Amino acid sequence: MQTACTAPTLEDMDEGGDTKPVHIREVPSKVVDILQKRADAQGMSLTGYLRQHLIEVASKPTMEEWIESATNRTWGVDRETIVRTIRELRDEVDSE
């Protein structure tokens, strides 16, 4: 039986596989200053701090992704089998 697809974990994305550079233009100076202070407080470079946060954001599915994974899962038993089994069990109880 399969369960819903899960989003990749932080560890899955942080395994040192392929990487791509990302350039973000026109970030307000105050935002960069705040992020730099937060990175410094954790003993990280700004790049490392931002990379960690981007990985965390990507590891959490959006509501749409979560709903799609929940509705597209295979339960292993179809509806007809469940209904038939319930009816058979009820018939057994009724005949006793």
Verbal overview:
InterPro entries: Ribbon_hlx_hlx. The protein has 96 residues and is mostly helical. It has one domain (10-95). Helix content is 59%, strand content 0%. The protein is built from 5 helices and no strands. α2 (29-41) packs across α3 (46-59). The model has no long low-confidence stretch (mean pLDDT 86).
Number of helices: 5
* Termini separation: 33 Å
User: How many strand units?
Assistant: 0
Average pLDDT: 86
Shape field: rod-shaped
Q: What count of structural domains?
A: 1
Could you estimate the helical fraction of the residues in percent?
Answer: 55-70%
Reading the helices and strands in chain order gives HHHHH
Q: Which percent range describes the beta-strand content?
A: under 5%
Structural class: mainly alpha
Which radius of gyration do the C-alpha atoms yield?
24 Å
- Low-pLDDT stretches are none
Q: Main β-sheet, in a few words? A: none
Region (Disordered): 1-21
GO biological process, one term: regulation of DNA-templated transcription
InterPro entries: Ribbon_hlx_hlx (IPR010985)
